[in-house]
């Protein structure tokens, strides 16, 4: 089932999400719905707060990026991350233009370290510790920020923040055209 994506201004996007355990009700269905929602919106990542749930889950599929960009040096991956914890961010910070399904029509350069080591559980609650680099690391950092209550717009340079402020105000008011279902803050 395709779920509405919560738009900028929704309080759930600013809340630090809570961990879940293996008894979380209907987890398999939730994950299936999240994948379907993400693909329907042409996203490469989606965090549970973006569908109104303040729990520590996010999904990533960077395999699609590699198909689009035809970059043979990047393999990409498709995974669900549950109860993730960043253990280390290393390497030279680099800028890259980011966007977000919760903040349509807003893009901006964000500086992030080039490598991340993260501990997480999969959908069977098996624990992994892995290190990711480049665009894979960046997408993880972006989605991880969501479960920490941080949006990419907070990491923009001050002049860019001023430039996008009006667009953000329009999004809060529901004045944005998107090709997917969205839930806007109540007036």
3D structure, described in words:
The chain is of the alpha+beta class and 187 residues long. It has one domain: Peptide deformylase (Peptide Deformylase), CATH 3.90.45.10. The protein is 27% helix and 30% strand. It is built from four helices and nine strands. The protein has helices at 27-40, 63-69, 134-147, 158-172, and strands at 5-6, 45-47, 57-61, 78-90, 94-100, 103-112, 115-121, 127-133, 182-183. A five-stranded antiparallel sheet has the order 2-3-4-7-8, with helices on both faces. Strands 1-9 form a two-stranded parallel ribbon. Strand 5 and strand 6 form a beta hairpin.
Distance between the termini: 27 Å
Strand content: 25-35%
CATH architecture: Alpha-Beta Complex
Main beta sheet strand tally, sense and closure: 5 strands, antiparallel
Low-confidence stretches: none
Number of helices: 4
Query: What fold name stands as the CATH topology?
Result: Peptide Deformylase
Which whole number gives the mean pLDDT? 94
| Whole-number count of domains | 1
SS content category: alpha+beta
Roughly how much helix do the residues carry, as a percent range?
Answer: 25-40%
Radius of gyration: 16 Å
| Order of helix and strand elements from N to C terminus | EHEEHEEEEEHHE
Q: Number of DSSP strands?
A: 9
> What spatial form do the alpha-carbon principal axes imply?
globular
Q: Name the CATH superfamily assignment.
A: Peptide deformylase
How do you describe this structure in short?
By secondary structure, this protein is an alpha+beta fold. It has helices spanning 27-40, 63-69, 134-147, 158-172, and strands at 5-6, 45-47, 57-61, 78-90, 94-100, 103-112, 115-121, 127-133, 182-183. The strands form 3 sheets. It has a 5-stranded antiparallel beta sheet, with helices on both faces.
